[in-house]
Amino acid sequence: MSEPTLREDTAVGPPEHLHPLFLLTGLGGSLRGVAGGYVAIGYLAVSGRWGTAFFGMLALIAFMTIGLFLYWRRFEFRVGANEIRIDSGIVSRTHRSIPFDRIQDVDITQGPLARVLGLARVKFETGASAGQEEGVLQAIRLERAEQLRTLVRARRTHAVSVEPNTEAVELPPVYEMKFPRLLLTGTFNFSLAIFAGLFGLASSPVGEAMGFDPFSRTFWVSILSVSGPASELVMAHRYATAAAGLVLLVLLGVVTGIIRTALTDFGFRLDRTGVGLRRRRGLFTRTDVTLPVSRAQAAVIATGPLMDRLRWREFRVQSLAKDEGSKGSHVLAPLARDAEVDRIIGELGWQPLPPRIAWTRVSLEFVIVLGVALSPLFLVAIGNLVFNPIVGGPFLAVLLGALGLRWLAWRRTGYSVDGDRILVRTGWWRRRITVLPAGKIQSVDLRENFITRAFGIAWLQFGVAGGGMTGHSIPAIPRGEARKLRDLLLDMGV
Amino acid sequence: MVSDIEMIAEAVLPSPGADVDPDLLPVEPAYKNVLRARMSVIWLVLWAAGAVADQAMLQETAAAGLPTFVIPALAAVAILTAPERIYRRLHYKLTDRLLQVVRGWLFHVDTVVPLVRVQHIDVTRGPLEKAFGVATLVVHTAGTHNSIVMLPGLAPQRAAEIRDIIREHVRTDFA
């Protein structure tokens, strides 16, 4: 694939359009995009101007349909010998060509409607700066999408190693999640996000207008007063009611967690393919993403106090490509045993973690420095405690709690040089072991500030390509050791 | 922006970076003037805003006239002290494998970038930098954290020279 593509060559291929049903599937996306419009219409409706509201709604839908139609009409892509060309834009045209060499992989996503209609959204992953949607085909037939993916893979591996029927023979998966484990994952994902949602609704103008505020006493009292006998019952057994409420709260949290997990992780399956690991998951929106192993930059084994006690872990990989959604890192196993994690690490072509890791602990100044940084607040809290214990007490407790958590985190924080990579263990509540190969380190920062300097400790922070995981860093290492570690890692990596 | 604690800490404690590595090179002293000019502009804006607020809102209160006179005093202290200190901290080192930039006054940052990890390089010169005859070298790495490493205050020829040295090493190592 060395010869340059000639513009007037047949190498460019015939023009193709998106599937006409895009007009239908695309409408959903457009409808989500005009939240401001609904607010306006809702306002009109609430203020009694139904005619205007109706007209506004019609205009909005007409406007979006015309917009979609024009987009569809003006959108063209061509699959050439060496590149994919995408011509788009209603008024200002963009002619983009993406060489096959640059395409890391093809992500296929299917929303619920698209699944019914047999369509798929195709995204060419180019490893360009995160957040840029470089090459997206909003809706084409699923078969065509799979064809494109096979084509891209074949071009990348120089047309030998990938034959189309590799997909047909299903090898046993590297990792998969059966239904009971999905439920368990959901339970660990216990979430009270629903209350955040209720809170959001309550504080929104709509909620206020409806008199919907689950955080005010009067709201519940008024609901109960409608159902007379129930309120007497509640008032009579208020402790039992409180307990029942608590149970309900926990139940709600668990159910929310399970639903959220089921939506994304249903039918989670990880397979080994020619270039990497292929992940399929999703209940309504099915996604099919391949992570080329050579693109994996770092890995995180995450767990929590309870999950850890039960020996469960989550395994994620930071890659150059962004995962769907905003999260960035690719979840390769939502809930796995150590052996399964080791298997996936092995499939990445990395050494498994040693059974016993000799952690070098960070210095206790990690905690002391926080204490010093918080000292002005401590003074305020103690002052308050003397003059106004009701405010000062809880304030002091919060500060002490923060210090206590830092101390717990300190007991777990450590690092270990393991062959040509570094392992970093952090956190007490959010327990993480980061596996960072020295060769993937892009830059190293040694950070100090006016407090840590006095204690002679420094933070080592690593720049790693790809998004998702914020700041790979080792806290509170004595300055001299930090310098030595930095030089060691840079020597290994370059 | 200038806190007493910092000043004391700065005076008492040795400044790390300059103390350990004699190979670290300072940048052009003209960079101090760039910093002074830049800070003057910022403080001027602050002062203008303060003076307007003073006229508009504080006339009847005890704080009348305070911003109009206190801000210039603070500005004078800041402009006289900070650039000197920032300049004193800013050092760099270029070896055949690494670029090291040591900078920061309150928050020390000591960045090392292996030359093979550099994605692309810019030499930028803003109007103030042009006026004082310096340039900034901007090194981009693929990392998402601190992916942009800036080395300000270089002589333009030196910046171009470093750029050319680094350019020799730039290669893509992603599959």
Characterize the structure shown.
- In chain A, 46% of the residues lie in helices and 25% in strands.
- The longest helix of chain A is centred in the middle third of the chain and has 28 residues, at 238-265.
- Mean pLDDT of chain A is 81; it is low at 1-8 and 159-168.
- Chain A has 17 helices and 21 strands.
- Chain B has 175 residues and is α+β, with helices and mostly antiparallel strands.
- Chain B has 2 domains: 23-88; 92-169.
- In chain B, 47% of the residues lie in helices and 23% in strands.
- Chain B is elongated and about 65 Å long.
- The model of chain B is unreliable at 1-18 (pLDDT under 50).
- Chains A and B meet through strand 19, strand 20 and helix 17 of A and helix 1 and strand 4 of B.
Query: Low-confidence parts of chain B, pLDDT < 50 over ≥5 residues?
Result: 1-18
From the N-terminal CA to the C-terminal CA of chain A, the straight-line distance is: 30 Å
Give the strand order, joined by hyphens, for the main sheet of chain B.
1-2-3-4
Distance between the termini of chain B: 46 Å
Number of spatially distinct domains of chain B:
2
Please tell me the total number of domains of chain A: 4
List keywords for this structure.
heterodimer, A: alpha+beta, 7-stranded antiparallel sheet, 46% helix, B: 175 residues, alpha+beta, 4-stranded antiparallel sheet, 47% helix, elongated, disordered N terminus
Structural topology:
The complex is a heterodimer of chains A (494) and B (175).
Chain A: E1 15-16, H1 22-33, H2 35-46, H3 50-74, E2 76-79, E3 83-88, E4 94-99, E5 105-110, H4 112-117, E6 119-125, E7 135-141, H5 142-156, E8 175-176, H6 179-188, H7 193-203, H8 205-210, H9 217-226, H10 228-236, H11 238-265, E9 269-272, E10 276-281, E11 286-292, E12 296-303, H12 305-309, E13 313-319, E14 330-336, H13 338-347, E15 360-361, H14 365-387, H15 389-412, E16 414-418, E17 421-426, E18 431-437, E19 441-449, H16 452-455, E20 457-464, E21 472-478, H17 479-493
Antiparallel strand pairs in A: 1-2, 2-3, 3-4, 5-6, 5-11, 6-7, 8-9, 9-10, 10-11, 12-13, 12-18, 13-14, 15-16, 16-17, 17-18, 19-20, 20-21
Helix pairs in contact in A: 1-3, 2-3, 6-11, 9-10, 14-15
Chain B: H1 4-12, E1 25-26, H2 30-58, H3 66-89, E2 91-94, E3 98-103, E4 107-114, E5 118-124, H4 127-132, E6 135-141, E7 148-154, H5 156-169
Antiparallel strand pairs in B: 1-2, 2-3, 3-4, 5-6, 6-7
Helix pairs in contact in B: 2-3
